[in-house]
Specification:
Low-confidence stretches: none
Number of helices: 6
Distance between the termini: 11 Å
Shape: globular
Largest sheet: 5 strands, parallel
CATH topology: Rossmann fold
Structural class: alpha/beta
Strand content: 15-25%
Order of helices and strands: EHEHHEHEHEH
Length: 190
């Protein structure tokens, strides 16, 4: 089984990273092949709206560090996306990657029986820590991205929201969230 972990936080050791590590610790018990990316360390552009992925190619034609990330997503069975909520949405780093996954969709994808170029049956774990403790705030973030990721072939999807964690390491005090991450991992890899 291939697992791809993508950290969209600028903080390499923040709450998003801690929750990723909880999942990876479980994955290692099951001999899962793990690939990790920290978007803040990569050189890339956002989607250029060139539409080459819909007219001339079956993949994104931009030549940058996202080529490896997109190929890893193409090959994975399980994808972890982890991004803190900044200004009511995922980070700019994560949004740039999500926009580039547009290349996984075939032309006229909304009207196709098979809208994705990806193999169906992938699993998504979406980690979304936020400083705002009110769970009603920013509850719309996960569903809007889940909609497109389901079209792409991520048929099984697990959100992990961590509300009320602002400072690096705050999630260490939240056994409920960390236990949920580990439980999801066990269900995915066992």
């Amino acid at each position: 089984m291939n697992l791809v972990s993508i950290l969209g936080s600028p903080r390499k050791k923040g709450n998003s990273s801690i929750l990723i590590q909880d999942i990876l610790d479980v994955a290692q018990q099951y001999s899962v092949n793990i690939q990790r990316f920290h978007l803040n360390q990569l050189n890339y552009k956002g989607c250029q709206a060139c539409l080459s992925c819909k007219t001339k190619s079956d993949h994104c034609v931009l030549k940058d560090d996202f080529q490896d990330v997109l190929e890893a997503i193409r090959q994975c069975d399980v994808l972890i996306l982890a991004s803190p909520i900044y200004f009511a949405d995922v980070t700019a780093q994560m949004k740039a990657l999500i926009d580039r996954t547009y290349s996984f969709l075939v032309p006229d994808f909304l009207n196709k029986a098979e809208p994705s170029r990806l193999k169906p049956g992938k699993t998504l774990i979406f980690i979304l820590p936020q400083a705002q403790p009110d769970e009603k705030m920013f509850a719309d973030v996960y569903p809007k991205y889940d909609f497109f990721l389901k079209i792409m072939g991520f048929t099984q999807s697990f959100p992990i929201r961590a509300c009320g964690v602002m400072d690096e390491g705050d999630v260490y005090q939240r056994d409920d969230i960390r236990d949920k991450a580990r439980e999801i991992a066990r269900n995915c890899f066992s």
